[in-house]
Amino acid sequence: MPTAFPHDSVGLVTPQVVHFAEPLALACGRSLADYQLMIETYGELNAARTNAVLICHALSGHHHAAGYHSVDDRKPGWWDSCIGPGKAIDTNKFFVVSLNNLGGCNGSTGPASINPATGKPFGAEFPVMTVEDWVHSQARLADHLGIEQWAAVVGGSLGGMQALQWTISYPERVRHCLAIASAPKLSAQNIAFNEVARQAILTDPDFNEGRFQEKGVIPKRGLMLARMVGHITYLSDDAMGEKFGRELKTDKLNYDFYSVEFQVESYLRYQGEEFSTRFDANTYVLMTKALDYFDPAAAHDGDLAKTLANVKADFCIMSFTTDWRFSPARSREIVDALTAARKNVSYLEIDAPQGHDAFLMPIPRYLQAFNSYMQRIKV
Hints:
Layout: E1 16-20, E2 24-25, E3 31-32, E4 35-42, E5 52-56, E6 83-84, E7 89-90, E8 95-100, E9 114-115, E10 120-121, H1 131-145, E11 152-156, H2 158-169, E12 176-180, H3 188-202, H4 212-215, H5 220-234, H6 237-243, H7 263-276, H8 281-293, H9 304-307, E13 314-320, H10 328-340, E14 345-350, H11 364-376
Parallel strand pairs: 5-8, 5-11, 6-7, 11-12, 12-13, 13-14
Antiparallel strand pairs: 1-4, 2-3, 4-8, 9-10
C-alpha cells in the first residue's frame, strides 16, 4: 500500500459492476428487465461467510464509502471515518459491501442509463423506486456474493431506513441492524422540504420533462437550488452560526440583490454549483420520492410495533441532539416500537452541534459507541 494513505485506510479500491439478467418487479407496478449495480468491497469474506456488513447510502451517497480510487485522490470515500482497519466497521474483522442504489447516477442502472427499448437515456421514464425495491435488489446482490445472512446492515438517514426495511423484508438474513439519524417515516415538514427541492428541478426550463440529456443540457439552476435547500436542513443553527456567523465575504455591503456578500451565501452557492456538476437531476427527484414513500408501518395501520413483530435482528439506534431533519424523537419512535415488540435494542442520543450531517463526521463519542457495538458482533 502506498505510504501516502493513512495506516487505518483500506487504501486503493476498485469499483465492481454486477449485472443481473432476471427481471426485478417494483412496487410501482413496473419492472426492470435487467440492471446493474456498482459496488465496492473492503476486507475479506471469511470461509463461513458470516462476517459480511452491508452499507446503505443516504440521498446523495454512492458506492464509494471508504478508501481511494487513485493515489491522486484528495478525499477518501464518504464514510471513511467509520470504515477501515481498526475503525468502527473494522475491515480486519468484517467483509464490507457498499453499493450505489438502483436509480442512482454513479454506475448503477438509473435515469441516465440507456433504455434498451429506445436507445435513449431513460430520463424521467425510469421507474419510481422505493426503499423496499432497493432492499430486494440488495438481497439479489447478497445472493450473487454468496452471503446468506448479513452480520449487520448499517446506514444513516435514508440508509437507516433501508437497514430497517431489511429486517422487515428479510428477517432471517440480518443479525444486527444499525440505523443512524433515521426515522420510521418522514414528517410532513420533511416531505415539504423534498417537494420544494423537486419543484426547483422540475420547473427549471432546462429540465425538459426529464429529457435534458437528449437536449445536451442540465437543469443546473434547479439542482443548485435543491442542494442549497437540502444543505440548510442538514446543518443545525449552531453549526451554521459557528461556521459562518454573519461574516462578510466582501469588505463592505453593496446594497443590491445580486452580490454574494455573506460567507454563508458563498458557501451555499459553492455547494450548489459543485453538486450540479456531479449529480443527475432525475436521480435527485427519484431519491426524494423514495424517502417520501417510506412508511413500513402503513401495512399494519400505522402500528410500527406490529410491523416489527417478526424481525430477528438486534438493533442499535443512534441519533444526534441538534438533528432537526431526523430528530431524536423519530429515532425514539423506532426504539419504543422495538421495545413494545420485545426486541433487543440499544439506543444512544449523542450530544453534537453538527445537525443531521453529524452521522458522517468523526465525533469521538459517536465513533466510540459505534465501535463498541460493532465489536460485540460475533462472526
